[in-house]
Design a protein that fits this description.
Layout (H helix, E strand, L loop, with lengths): L14 H15 L4 E7 L5 H14 L3 E6 L11 H13 L1 H10 L8 H4 L14 H18 L2 E6 L6 H12 L6 E8 L10 H8 L4 E6 L4 H11 L6 H11 L3 H11 L11 H6 L7 H13 L3 E2 H8 L3 H13 L3 E2 L5 E4 L2 H10 L2 H16 L7 H10 L3 H17 L3 H14 L11 H14 L3 H14 L6 H17 L3 H15 L6 H16 L3 H17 L7 H13 L3 H18 L2 H17 L3 H17 L8 H14 L3 H8 L7 H17 L5 H7 L1 H4 L4 H16 L3 H19 L6 H19 L4 H21 L9 H21 L6 H14 L5 H17 L3 H18 L2 H7 L14 H11 L4 H8 L3 H15 L4 H10 L5
Helix pairs in contact: 1-2, 3-4, 4-6, 9-11, 10-11, 13-15, 13-16, 13-17, 14-17, 17-18, 18-19, 19-20, 20-21, 21-22, 21-23, 22-23, 23-24, 23-25, 24-25, 25-26, 25-27, 26-27, 27-28, 27-29, 28-29, 29-30, 29-31, 30-31, 31-32, 31-33, 32-33, 33-36, 34-36, 36-37, 36-38, 37-38, 38-39, 38-40, 39-40, 40-41, ...
């Protein structure tokens, strides 16, 4: 298990860096696992430093495992460094790997023997659970570290693929008490602003178990020491200065400049770095130079067997050439019979120096060796060599195989890259190609969907349908329409989904009963349900089950069973629906239908949520989210929805810190998903007084069309923020914009979120009523319209047979209570004190199903109504209960409304400027009518201010308020 390299190059300086790295190693020995991010420019000495650290770790009794990332171009082999680590371990310690595979079978997918062209598949079939793979890698490393502490080194992470970066990030977050140290190196000079590693590095560095070590250029004294150690005979001072000036403290450049100078006239040292590096090859034999070119073309470490096949030299000549290269310090060879350049810059220079024809011929030689399986290799390697050798037919087939392999190891991002390249290469496929283009397009769309790139998938399928000949087989067209409808439904393009699935259904109507026909009928049922056609949805769901039974694959219509459960829930039988969904989830899990399982588990949580069982919803959604991750569908439909609804449920329950954690994003989160999760984060931040969320939601308008749940969830925190900023016009415009968007998406103005939207609008009118008494009649007229819209939505927004959920009922009650409050504030047809108290009591009770924050706000309004009715003790009780919630949640707006952090009746610091002005006049003995005339506001507004003052001061009368004001110096 020891991968400890040896090098003759001396290590100069680096004492600080070595100390930091070995400190992490020593910590791991005492069960304080940690990671080090090692950065530095190309050639500065990162690898040499890691060699020394590996030696130091070995001397301390550590096992050392090293994996390298390689530049494959646009798409490579997912998890390559971990494949190298476990592959090398399998070769050196097969007993250990057998033990690891027994306990963590998912590791088998990473072993080179299972990823090579023509390899036997591992026992597991189908797509590997992403979370299972990540847990297996962590578990394997943890298990290996129990026998001896472990140092794991991942080099050249700037070339890492998406999946490798995700796995590294996962390991970093799971470092606890293992005897494990992880070191990740990368070129800092390669990390331009858009480099995919830039954001992960920032995320990883925030972990308290992560240290950052930067390898800076050597200083002048260190550079001179290194130079002196490299020369066999002294150089003139002029030559020394020239080398030091040009090297700039870069250890590799110093070595190369010294080597060039030692070969002849120092004045002849090439001015260009590439030329400088190539000077090293000039004294070598033709065979040695040819072998160097062959190794450079490989693009990675080259096994001896592959080199023997491709180099085309007799064994004796090849051995001699390799010896020359090793003696000249051009290449190195560790103990596993693979050769590699001592530095990537040298490999790049040799490769770039090849003539175009030479490159093509060398790549073609690798293609032949890999194709014939003369030597072992992966489909991703074959695809790269075939593309560069212009063997596009082979490149096409290899890209498809590489995409399939990526899917099996839960790497949809890499699969998407390979599949898209394969589609570009399809016109170059060989005449005897058996890969169906429609199948390839559908699988590419699936990979895009699994990567949370739904619009990309839709565009691909739309184009494929447009390009399809008019005389194409009906089944071929239906095979494209089915995923188009499915994805369109996911992102709320309901009409497009309906058109596509309706057309698909017509195309297969004359076909015999097949799995595909059952899937079309099942999706048609789901679309019908989404569009409010319950009878049609039920009929086609049963039809789908019937077709599936006739086809001998009843499990193929599992989605139809889920739709029937949904229909039962909406018909008023949530208990039976929940039971059906649980059964459907178990069946789907047993049959390996990942999409159906995740959908049923999400809908189970959704059922509990709509019924007001928030604890049940939370537990179900936690399970759904976990299973989605295990199945590699955390960003696909329903998997991501489960995570977002979990965060929303936690917010409603008042578990705001948990909600923020669930909604937190990182470098692995697709951009669209990150934008959607931020809406829940907005709710937490706005609830705590962060008014910047309003502007942030405005900046995210480009995402609204893609996922309408973003503006649906994000609207309320943004409106609340605008209200805190007294920017009522902006808030009203935002409500109008979101309402118009949803009316367009849903093709109706009677969508259920309209009840909450009209309530938000009514709150804004109440806010204006306090400061704009002259606009009272206009405000009441607008309030009447909002009330009518909200109440009409209840009647018109629900399809026949459906009933409104507990949250909808609570918001309807809130709308009616805010309407009463508006009339009370304006004095226009105001409710009696008893009526006003009663409506807010009903609202407070309605939110009692578990909506902690909104119930607290309802208590605030109920307190004001009670106080106005002269029921001061009850008012103080409700205010105290609301304040307790405000303190638990850290809700500054709620506490400010009640009189500050100390709560109602315990402080006066939260009196507004207007309330302070009113208090002074009350202390002078002014009546409400006199106050209204003097301040140019209505008597009702004066009454509101006086009630607020009494509540904040914790007193019962105007006389007590005046006394407290004089005692506390509030009138000064």
């Amino acid at each position: 298990m020891d991968d400890v390299p040896w090098t003759s190059t001396p290590l100069v300086g680096r004492s600080t860096e070595m100390a930091a790295l070995l400190s992490a190693v020593d910590d791991a020995r005492t069960r304080r696992a940690g990671a080090v991010l090692l950065s530095g420019d190309a050639g500065v000495g990162k690898t040499r430093l890691l060699d020394e650290v590996a030696t130091g770790a070995h001397e301390r009794g550590f096992g050392v495992l090293v994996g390298h990332c390689t530049d494959f171009g646009d798409a490579g082999l997912p998890y390559l460094p971990f494949t190298e680590i476990f592959g090398r371990l399998a070769g050196e310690r097969p007993d250990l790997v057998d033990s690891v595979l027994t306990n963590f079978p998912a590791i088998g997918r990473l072993l080179p023997t299972h990823r090579l062209i023509g390899a036997q598949p591992v026992p597991q079939e189908g797509q590997l659970d992403r979370a299972a793979l990540f847990d297996a890698v962590l578990g394997a490393l943890t298990a290996l570290s129990t026998s001896e502490p472990l140092l794991v080194i991942i080099e050249d992470a700037h070339w890492a693929d998406d999946s490798t970066r995700d796995l590294i990030g996962f390991l970093i977050t799971r470092l606890t008490s293992q005897r494990l140290a992880l070191v990740v190196s990368y070129r800092s000079d390669d990390l331009h602003r858009r480099h995919p590693l830039r954001r992960p590095i920032a995320e990883w560095a925030r972990n308290p178990r992560v240290r950052r070590v930067n390898v800076a250029p050597l200083d002048a004294d260190e550079s001179r020491t290194l130079l002196d150690s490299l020369v066999s005979k002294p150089l003139s001072e002029t030559e020394v200065r020239r080398i030091l000036d040009r090297a700039g403290g870069n250890a590799f450049f110093t070595e190369e400049l010294v080597a060039a100078a030692s070969m002849g006239d120092g004045e002849a040292v090439p001015p260009d770095l590439a030329d400088l590096l190539l000077v090293r090859l000039d004294p070598l034999s033709d065979d040695a130079r040819q072998v160097a070119r062959v190794i450079a073309v490989a693009g990675r470490r080259v096994p001896h067997t592959l080199l023997t096949t491709v180099a085309g030299l007799p064994d004796r000549d090849l051995d001699q050439a390799l010896r020359e290269l090793i003696d000249a310090h051009i290449i190195d060879v560790p103990g596993n019979a693979s050769y590699y350049f001592r530095h990537a810059l040298l490999a790049e220079a040799v490769y770039d120096d090849l003539l175009p024809g030479e490159r093509v011929r060398q790549h073609a030689a690798y293609v032949q060796a890999l194709k014939d399986q003369t030597v072992a290799g992966t489909a991703a390697e074959l695809a790269g060599h075939a593309t560069r050798s212009h063997d596009l037919a082979t490149a096409f087939e290899a890209r498809v195989r590489a995409g399939q392999e990526a899917i099996t190891v839960a790497a949809p991002q890499e699969a998407l890259k390979h599949y898209e390249m394969a589609l570009e290469l399809f016109p170059n496929a060989s005449p005897d190609n058996t890969i169906d283009k429609t199948w390839l397009i559908v699988d590419t769309a699936l990979a895009a969907t699994l990567s949370s790139q739904h619009l990309r998938a839709l565009k691909l399928l739309r184009k494929a349908l447009v390009d399809l000949p008019t005389d194409a087989p009906k089944l071929q067209r239906a095979q494209l329409l089915l995923p188009l409808a499915d994805i369109a439904l996911i992102i709320d393009h309901d009409q497009e989904a309906n058109e596509a699935v309706t057309q698909a259904l017509k195309l297969v109507s004359d076909e015999p009963s097949t799995v595909f026909k059952a899937q079309v009928a099942s999706l048609y049922a789901r679309v019908s349900d989404a569009l409010g056609r319950p009878m049609e949805a039920e009929r086609w769901a049963h039809k789908a089950l019937e077709i599936a039974r006739e086809a001998g694959q009843e499990s193929a219509a599992g989605d139809a069973g889920i739709t029937l459960a949904q229909l039962r829930r909406r018909a008023g039988d949530p208990v039976a629906a929940a039971r059906q969904l649980e059964e459907a989830a178990v069946r789907a899990q047993l049959t390996g239908d990942a999409a159906a399982e995740v959908r049923s588990r999400f809908l189970l949580g959704s059922t509990y949520y709509e019924e007001g069982d928030l604890q049940g919803a939370k537990m179900a959604l936690i399970h759904a989210s976990q299973r989605a991750g295990e199945l590699g569908r955390q960003w696909a439909a329903y998997g991501f929805d489960a995570r977002r609804m979990l965060a929303l449920t936690q917010f409603v329950l008042g578990e705001w810190d948990d909600a923020a954690d669930t909604a937190r994003t990182d470098s692995k989160t697709p951009a669209a998903s990150a934008a959607a999760l931020r809406a829940v984060d907005f709710a937490v931040r706005s609830g705590r007084g962060d008014t910047s969320v309003a502007e942030e939601l405005e900046r995210m308008r480009k995402w609204w069309d893609l996922d309408v749940m973003l503006p649906i969830i994000g609207l309320q925190p943004a409106v609340d923020a605008y209200r805190q900023l007294d920017q009522v016009a902006d808030a009203e415009k935002l409500i109008a914009d979101v309402s118009a968007l949803l009316a367009d998406v849903f093709q109706t103005e009677w969508f259920m979120a309209q009840i909450r939207f009209t309530t938000l609008g009514m709150q804004l009118l109440c806010h204006r009523a306090v400061s704009e008494p002259s606009a009272a009649e206009e405000l009441v007229a607008r309030g009447s319209d909002l009330l009518a819209t909200g109440q009409a939505t209840v009647e018109k927004g629900l399809p026949p047979g459906r009933v409104i959920g507990v949250e909808g009922l609570a918001w309807l009650s809130r709308l009616e209570a805010e309407w009463e409050r508006l009339r009370w504030l304006t004095g226009i047809d105001p409710p009696s004190p008893e009526e006003h108290v009663a409506v807010w009591q009903r609202t407070m009770d309605a939110f009692g199903y578990g909506y902690v924050f909104e119930q607290a706000w309802s208590r605030v309004r109920l307190s004001a109504a009670l106080r106005a009715a002269g029921r001061v003790a009850e008012a103080n009780e409700q205010a105290a209960l609301a304040a307790e919630v405000g303190r638990e949640l850290g809700s500054k707006p709620l506490l400010d409304e009640l009189g500050g952090v100390e709560g109602p009746g315990l402080g006066s610091g939260a009196l507004t400027a207007r309330e302070t002005e009113v208090l002074k006049l009350v202390a002078d003995g002014r009546t409400n009518r006199q106050l209204a005339r003097e301040l140019y506001i209505s008597e009702k507004t004066v009454s509101v201010h006086v009630s607020n003052i009494l509540g904040k001061l914790g007193v019962r009368s105007r006389t007590e308020a005046a006394a407290v004001a004089r005692r506390d110096g509030l009138l000064d």
